[in-house]
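Q: Nucleoside 2-deoxyribosyltransferase, please. Structure only.
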Amino acid sequence: MNMASFTVYVAGPVLRPGAELAPRVGWLFAELEATAKAHGMQLVLPTYSERLDRLAAHPFAQEIRDRIGKTDATIAVIARPASAQDISGHSIAMEAHETALAGKPIALLLEDADLPPPRLLAALDRVSIYAFGGPGTLDALFENLAKDLNDMAR
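A: Structure for Nucleoside 2-deoxyribosyltransferase:
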């Protein structure tokens, strides 16, 4: 398996109608896409789906499991909420947990270095933690994911 064949699921804030994302999240997703492309990887970014939002808990969880099952790893983007009403990141813990259950690597990407990683996510197997802050952070993230995935493929 080579890097070009890896697909990475991104768990993170979702822009919903009538809501706003934290200011840096859209920019961070664009940076993730560009860096993934430079490393020959494909991303599955969070996108709004009215159908998914309307699902009850168990069908929702199954849909997320199915999506994660089609990918090789997960990046969980942890960002500060845009407002008290911001629910855009509520499923991130479940998505990271499902990735861990599937035995796949997880990278927690903190919006900035002042944001502490959620303790439950930091305790998952196969997790690496990165704080976005400067040049090279995303390159290191993708290089380490590729290493983990190549090691698993052996």
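A: Brief note, in case it's useful. Strands lie at 7-11, 42-44, 73-78, 106-110, 127-131.
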